[in-house]
Amino acid sequence: MPQPTTAPIGVVLARTAKTAARAFDHALAAAGGSQPIWQILISLKTTPVANQRELADAVGVQGATLTHHLNGMEAAGLVTRRRDPANRRVHLVELTPEGEQLFLRLASAAIAHDERMRKGLTDTEIAQLADLLTRLAHNVTDS
Amino acid sequence: MPQPTTAPIGVVLARTAKTAARAFDHALAAAGGSQPIWQILISLKTTPVANQRELADAVGVQGATLTHHLNGMEAAGLVTRRRDPANRRVHLVELTPEGEQLFLRLASAAIAHDERMRKGLTDTEIAQLADLLTRLAHNVTDS
DNA sequence: TATTGTTATACTCTATAACTATA
DNA sequence: TATAGTTATAGAGTATAACAATA
Question: How many CB atoms sit inside 10 A of residue B111's CB?
């Protein structure tokens, strides 16, 4: 009788992600950061965002959640917020030199983490994995 | 100049896992559960554990965190805890009929979620993915 | 003393609802 | 009225430290 024979990929994915996320969390913490801070920094550096709403979308959190993190980051001297003269409703978020430095440190930690994770896997396998993960994610995306 | 050319797999993995985890969280919540409850139920059903310490390890949390969840599950009538007569330090955790029912409901939700996620992927690809993820996780595991 | 588990407490991340400022 | 963002509040998950019970 034909039955689905393969293992529940969701379980494997969840377990792997949990393990990887914890290891990465520790690496980020050791470098003076955290997951949300890293996500915000990398978004600021790589994605052109017009306002905080778009930044929140890029990071994958609600606007109020982003505000919460930006408050902490501003208090820590990592970012500045100033109103856009052209549209004073908009708050422009910019990295300070300290923010740039932390970005570099966290990027190093992320690269080291990546190299550790992919040890024993070929570039072809990594590309395959990335492709499969992307297709998986697409299946559970609403948009 | 030879440079690492492939994308940071950690980023792809983190993004995919976040998306998948959120979708799964919603599915579990709709079925009356949550991730930790599901992990505890599935561990109780599939892994023979001698005590809560082992159960906590299986779930991947600290003992106190497990106690926290078991308190809630016991209050909800999903599990019972009684002392082991042979070693009264040990608390035996057992599923109630309600716990069994919830396990079945969450299992259905997990299966549905899995089928949704793997749409468009062949069994071979899923097996490949599981293998790659397992190797990745192994690389960041301390043990 | 060592082991098993609980309680007390606190921290991080996230979210929703109500609010302020600006257009 | 609509849009951008903040504040207030709350809830879930996790952790560490101190404790109680048992061996």
Answer: 13
Q: Pairing mode, if any, of strands A87-95 and B79-84?
A: unpaired
Q: Averaged over A81-94, what is the pLDDT?
A: 96
CATH 3.40.50.410, applies to A29-134: no
Interchain CB distance below 8 Å, B17 and A15: no
Are residues B46 and A56 in contact, defined by beta-carbon separation less than 8 angstroms? no
Q: Which CATH number fits domain B30-136: 3.90.226.10, 2.60.120.200, 3.30.1780.10, 1.10.10.10?
A: 1.10.10.10
Please determine, for residue A108, whether its predicted confidence score (pLDDT) is greater than 50: yes
Answer yes or no: is pLDDT of B3 > 50.
no
Section A118-123 average pLDDT: 92
Give the residue among A82, A64, A126, A128 at the shortest CA–CA distance from B139. Answer: A126
Which nucleotides of strand D lie within 7 A of protein CB?
3-9, 12-18, 21-23
Residue B88 CB closer than 7 angstroms to strand D?
Answer: yes
pLDDT classification of B14: cutoffs 50, 70, 90:
confident
